[in-house]
Structure formats: C-alpha cells, structure tokens
Amino acid sequence: MGLGLMERNAGAEFFLMDQKRLQKAAVLCLLAVCGGVCCAGVARAQTAQPSQPLIGEPAAQDYQGGVPVGTVQAGSIALTLEDAIARGLRQNLGLLLSHAQTATVRGEQLQQLQDLLPKVDANLSENLMQTDLAAEGLRVPGFPTIIGPYGYTDVRANLNWTALNLTALHNYLASRHDFRAAQLTAADARQMVILTVGNAYLVVVADRAEVDAVKAQVETSKTSLDQATARHDAGTAPKLDVLRAQVDYQSQQQQLIVAENQLAKDKLALARAIGLPMAQQFTVADTVPYAAFDQPDVQSEIDKALAARKDRQAAAETTASMTEQRKAAAADRLPTVKVSADYGDIGVNLNHSHGTGDASGMLTIPIFKEAQFRGEAKIAQSQLDQQKAKQSDLDAQIEADIRDALLDIASTEKQVAVAQSNVKLAKEELSDAQQRYAAGVSDNLAVTQAQQSVAQADGSYIDSLYQHNVAKLNLARSMGMAQNYKEYLGGK
Fold first, then answer.
1. How many domains does the structure of the chain reveal?
2. Largest CB tally within 10 Å, which of 189, 319, 333, 450?
C-alpha cells in the first residue's frame, strides 16, 4: 500500500509538471496564432491586433523565425534580455518581411503616380527601302519598275498624357494611404518582435529556474535516500523506507531530464526568433525578478493606447485608402481627356532633314457601362463598410486587451504572493519531516510527501512569476509601448 501511494504521488507530480509544460506550450502556440502573448495560466488568447491583417502585415508565425547572422563563437555567450530584443529587431523574420512589404507598397504607389504623369518616349530610326512597283500592280510604260534603294532618318519624341482622369487621381491618393499604412504596420511589427522575443526569453528564464529547482530536489532526495539506507543498514528502518526514498530519487532524476530537455528546446526557439545561429551556445544572463506593479487608471491607459497604437493608425490609413478607392469607382462615370503629340526631324540624313510633328486631343465619355459602374461602386462601398466596422472593433479590442492585461497582472501578483508563502511553508514542512525521521519518530513517507509539496510549490512560484511578467509585457504591447518593456517589467 505504501508503494502504491508513492506511485500515485509520483504520477501526480509528473502530471503537474506536464501541466506546467502544456501551459507554456499553449502560450507559444497562442502567440503564433494570434500574434500576441497571453498568460500561461489562462485558457484564452489575448491579441492586440485587428481581425483583418493590415497591408504589409506578416503572418503571425513569421515572428517565431529569424534570419541567422554571424558565426558560431567558441564557448557559451551571455545573452541579456536587451541583447535578445536588439537582435530580434535586426533579424526577426516578421520584421524583415514587413520592411520588404513596405518597399513593395512604395513601388505600387510609384506605379499609380505614373498614371497621372505624361509619358514621353524618344526613338531614332534609320530606314532603307526598295520597292517593286510591278509587284504592287503599278505597270506604266516608260516608268521604272524598281524604285530605290532609298532611305531616310527619323529622330522623334512622342508624348502621351491622360490630362484629366479622376479615377487615376483617386487611385494614386489611395496608394499614398496604403504606403503610410505599410509604414505604420512595420512600426507595429517592432512591437510584435519585442513581445515575441520577450516572451521567448521569459520562457527560458522560467525553464532555467525550474531546472535549478529540480536539481535542488534531486539533492534533497539523494540525502533522504542516503539517510534511509544508513538507517536500514543499522537495523533501525525497514526496507520499505529505502525503496520509497529510491523511487522518489529516481522520479526527481526523470523530472530533471525532462526539465533540461525543455530548456534546450526553448533556447532553440529563442535563438530562431532573434536570428542566432542554431549551433551557438548561450545562457540567459537576466533573471527578470518579481516587481510589484502599480495599478494605473484604466481609462487613462486606454486613451493613451488609442493614441499610441501603430496598428490602429494603420487601420485608419487603410480606411482612408478604401475611401479613395470608393471615389475612384464613382469617377469611372466621368469623361477623360487624353493628349497625344510627337515632334522630330526626318530626312535623308540628319544634315538634310526637317522638323515634323503632330498633336491630337481626345475626349472620352462613357455611355453604356452602367452595370459595370454600379458593380464596381457596390464592391468598393462594401469593402469600405467592412473596414470601418473592423476599425471600430479594433478600438474595442484595444480596450479589452488593456483591461484583460491589468486583470491578469493583478491576479498573478496575488498568485506570486501566495506561491512565495507556499514555498516557505513547504520547506518548513520538509525540514520538520526530515528532523522527525532522523529522530526515529516517523517513517520517511512524510519526508517523501513533503518533498513533493516543495516541488509543487517551487513549480507554482516559477509559473506564477512567469505569468506575471508576461502579463506586464502584454500590457506594454497593448499600450503600444513595448519599447518601454523595462519600465513595465520593473513594476511601472
């Protein structure tokens, strides 16, 4: 019965450890899906992004990758949170793709501008001809059958310009808003990189703390095993105590293997996000200790976020772009004016030539395209209405993100306080159980149970601290202030 109890306790301990791993894995998965970070202890994702991707916005999973740069250095390097974020802001794949997309939108803007400008081409042609008049059907007695060879030189410039085209004008104005939206999205991508890298770094910090805690538990279990073995050899303790201590010791060793493996995998994930070579060994130099957070005025924070969030500003630019596109659809009904002209020199050669040219203007009035015009207008209006609805929803989402983040901070702050108390009490319980066993007052079952309580308390403290710091990062991102992450982690 004692061994059965030990097996159940060991199984419960492994289950709790797996739950903690699943919680951290859930955070990373939700970050990849939503592009945001949420607390590991809650079963919902908080995202600070609009439901429709903005122009130039990379896929959320792109922020988990990076472009490796540099060579592998010998030994292990110390990586601070600031270093990791700085690397991410240079090499994170999501940010690089966002910058590339901004350049693409800039190119599209220039193409739209060209539709408003005159198109001028120059050409130089040298011509040599010989004509068979008989083959052309011209047969005149006494008139030469073959003419030539003869030639001429033509140097000419051609002008084509749609002088009046309101559709092209509105399309160009829309492209300007698209470019501005792409720039703002690239700025918002920096916020996402800080959030993603910060979360990945905090995961590694939590993993390292868990490895250290499990190592301490292994040492405690080894001491208990040695003590039980010595007492059994002295004939003062049954074999059951040795078996129980040995099972506990081996269970802790297994947990250490799992914890070290998870630490190694999460370090690889961090290296990917910041573009560090996969073979480079590194250690996290920061511990990111607990700091109490001063709860701010909620409405004041919401107002600041609405003014600072780059994705909200980008959404406004996208709405302005779609407004211009709606005007462009309406302008299709209006007349257009096109001007064409050319001027150049033509002659036997450039020394014997004369200037020639022509010019023409054309007014085009659409007459019977009503179905096409109405269809284009309805499509443009529908897209504009959808974008306005999503922009309004984004404001509500921002407010919800901030309120959720503040609730998570307050909740996890209490969790940290309780977890700290539990760690202290569990260690006192373990110390008391060890003393009672050493005095021969009880068997080592109480020691085993106390060791498991310490392990659970350590794990809860590590997780609650991780959740608290992630919640503060999430608030910084929700505020559009991720660049000030040090202030938020420091307990702003």
1. 2
2. 189
Tokens 């193409």, located at residue: 111
User: Amino acid identity of 400?
Assistant: A
Residue type, 30: L
Residues 433, 458: one domain? yes
Each residue's pLDDT tens digit in the chain (492 positions)? 444 434 434 444 443 444 444 445 444 444 443 433 333 333 333 333 333 344 446 778 899 999 999 889 998 999 999 999 999 999 999 999 999 999 999 999 999 999 999 999 999 999 988 888 888 888 878 788 888 888 889 999 999 999 899 999 999 999 999 999 999 999 999 999 999 999 999 999 999 999 999 999 999 999 999 989 998 898 888 999 999 999 999 999 999 999 999 999 999 999 999 999 999 999 999 888 888 888 889 999 999 999 999 999 999 999 999 999 999 999 999 999 999 999 999 988 888 888 999 999 999 999 989 999 999 999 999 999 999 999 999 999 999 999 999 999 999 999 999 999 999 999 999 999 888 888 888 888 888 888 889 999 999 999 999 999 999 999 999 999 999 999 998 866
CATH number of the domain at 303, please: 1.20.1600.10
Owning domain of residue 125: 120-164+334-368
Which residues face 282 on adjacent strands?
77
**Do residues 328 and 340 share a domain?**
no
Same domain, 135 and 271: no
**Is 157 in the same domain as 202?**
no
Give a three-class secondary structure readout of 373-419: HHHHHHHHHHHHHHHHHHHHHHHHHHHHHHHHHHHHHHHHHHHHHHH
